[in-house]
Design a protein that fits this description.
It contains twelve helices and five strands. With 283 residues, it is mostly helical. It has a three-stranded antiparallel sheet with strand order 1-2-5, with no helix packed on it.
């Protein structure tokens, strides 16, 4: 099997089933996994090279994704959630509030240790994550998602995040993990994190979105704050900016577009007056 053979199969799939990039990635990941197993994990591997990784899909045409621009927490929703949790002394309440201060993955947040926190410099070092092994056991991996150097980064700690850590010292200060569970030995679980998030969302009348959408929220906020994209990419732990842009969600509708256009195009008397008040250039 050569790369062109795999590409021909991909084209056949795309011809008969016009897929989104996300749906197609599931297929390509499966094919890559099969070839990786065949060349590295089998006894007496029948092939030496994973040719599936050589297939160039950069020019393939994909079906547009569904519009999910609003599929992210808003700033008002974040404030409502965090305010409702401020009187909750549970480690999961602290974890949710802490997550909204960063754009880290939930697996990275769970793996944070007190040794990763440099209080003097005001940074937290993200360099490992919790992953599931054999489908059920959580293990601490000495790397982040993708096992790339880009995933290892120093993240500045905000005033709110520092206040949370100061209070957490009373709960988990003697534990290895910052967000340790009840026994103080193991880190918190993703399912219980999301259960706490869903419960508080119902309490304050906010739509529930999973922990991963908190990452979308923060990356979107960084873009809205005109933070340089290279800094956002670094903080997100991405290998390239294309993936970082995927996490940006912009609440756009006809009204907001109209308000932006009104700065240069007259739509009504108000915008006409705005135009007339501006100094004109002499050509």
């Amino acid at each position: 099997v050569k790369p062109k053979d795999i590409m021909n199969e991909y084209r056949l799939i795309m011809k008969n089933n016009y897929l989104t990039r996300k749906a197609f990635n599931k297929i390509s990941c499966l094919i890559n996994g099969v070839f990786r197993y065949a060349c590295k994990e089998m006894d007496n591997p029948p092939i030496e090279i994973n040719v599936a990784r050589s297939v160039d899909i950069s020019k393939m045409k994909f079906k547009p994704e569904n519009d999910n621009s609003n599929d992210v927490y808003t700033e008002d929703e974040k404030i409502a959630i965090c305010n409702a949790l401020k009187n909750d002394p549970s480690v999961y309440a602290y974890a949710v509030r802490f997550a909204f201060e960063f754009c880290m993955r939930i697996s990275e947040l769970r793996a944070l240790k007190w040794s990763d926190y440099d209080e003097a410099r005001g940074t937290i070092y993200i360099h490992h994550m919790m992953r599931r092994e054999n489908g059920c056991i959580s293990v601490d991996s000495p790397h982040t998602k993708g096992s790339r150097n880009e995933g290892m980064r120093y993240y500045p700690v905000s005033m709110e995040a520092k206040a949370i850590l100061d209070e957490l010292k009373e709960l988990t200060g003697n534990s290895e993990y910052i967000f340790a569970n009840g026994n103080g030995i193991n880190p918190i679980s993703t399912n219980k994190f999301n259960a706490k998030l869903e419960k508080v969302c119902r309490k304050v009348g906010v739509r529930y979105l999973s922990s991963h959408k908190i990452r979308f929220y923060m990356i979107t906020r960084l873009y809205q704050g005109n933070v340089p994209e290279m800094d956002i990419q670094y903080l997100a732990g991405h290998t390239d900016a294309t993936m970082t842009r995927h996490y940006r969600r912009i609440h756009t509708n006809a009204e907001t577009i109209r308000n932006d256009l009104a700065k240069i195009i007259p739509f009504d008397e108000v915008s006409v007056r705005y135009q007339s008040d501006k100094p004109r250039k002499v050509l």
